[in-house]
Amino acid sequence: MLIQTLSQGAKTDEEYKNKLISGIKRDRVLCIFGVVTIIVALLWMMTDNGVQGSFLSGVFTGTGAVIFFFALKHILKTKKMLKNEKLLHAERLKESDERNHMIAEKAMYWAGVIIMGVCYVVMLVSGFFNMAVFWSVWGMVMTYCILAAVLKKYFEKKL
Amino acid sequence: MENCIQELRKERKITQNELADAVEVTRQTIISLESGRYNASLILAHKIAQYFDMTIEDIFIFNLEEENIC
User: Fold this and answer.
1) Residue A1: band (very low, low, confident or very high) from pLDDT cuts 50, 70, 90
2) How many structural domains does chain B have?
3) B53: left (phi over 0), alpha (psi -120 to 50) or beta
């Protein structure tokens, strides 16, 4: 939802309608992706792969189901909007509203900062107990720092 | 930044919904603008000024002291 808010809003209802129609195609792909994930997880569940495999196949089934149902829900919502001009207009305003954009940007910024703060503490503490966790979290912190620096340079040139 | 959107709106008997629709934002944005919790972008300020047929400076009161400029 946050990403949807941050995406470039349409200037007219017609433009928004076209955006929604192309969004249905993306959601159909997501539906197929969700079903494929469930099938793969179910097939994997049938093979004997221990406790970890059983746990992971459950996780994959759940993930696939979530992707499938959210994409399906979005398709139904979009179809409802395409039939109702008033609803479509209200939704377009909600998506292109500058205050909503600012809220989404702030929410994402603070979520990133808090996650990195937590990761940093976890990295320091985990070093005493488990090196696998330490290196995983270290990788995340480093990726975040590099990405932040690269994106800063990119936006400095773009804006 | 202070503004007189609420006064102008009431003076002209315009609802928040009507103003929001005219300047293409949500009603919540108008509420936030009127209460001073949110500062409009230059584009939105321009749209509001055009809607009321006034200048931006007439609607948005720029307080130099508040903005730490002087």
Assistant:
1) low
2) 1
3) left
User: For an interface test with A, which of B29, B33, B35 has the most A Cβ atoms less than 10 Å from its Cβ?
Assistant: B29
Of A49, A65, A96, the position where a domain reaches its end is A96
Check CB contact under 8 Å for A98 and B28: no
Confidence (pTM): 0.77
Location of structure tokens 């400095």:
A156
- Domain of residue B29 covers 2-61
Instruction: Please tell me the predicted confidence (pLDDT) of residue B2.
Output: 86
Q: Which of A109, A91, A96, A80 lies closest to B25 in space, CA to CA?
A: A96
Interface test with A, best of B16, B17, B23, B26 (most A CBs within 10 A): B26
A29 and A81 belong to one structural domain: yes
What phi, psi does A105 have (nearest 5°)? -65, -45
Beta-carbon separation of A98 and B26 below 8 A: no
Mean pLDDT confidence for A101-115: 94
Same domain, A84 and A117: no
A56 and A6 together in one domain: yes
Q: Provide the residue range defining the domain that includes A154.
A: 100-158
Task: Tell me the C-alpha distance between B4 and B19, whole Å.
Answer: 13
Q: How many structural domains is chain A composed of?
A: 2
Helices marked H in chain A:
2-6, 13-46, 50-83, 85-96, 98-126, 131-158
Q: Are B47 and B23 contacting, i.e. CB atoms less than 8 angstroms apart?
A: yes
- Domain holding B10: CATH number? 1.10.260.40
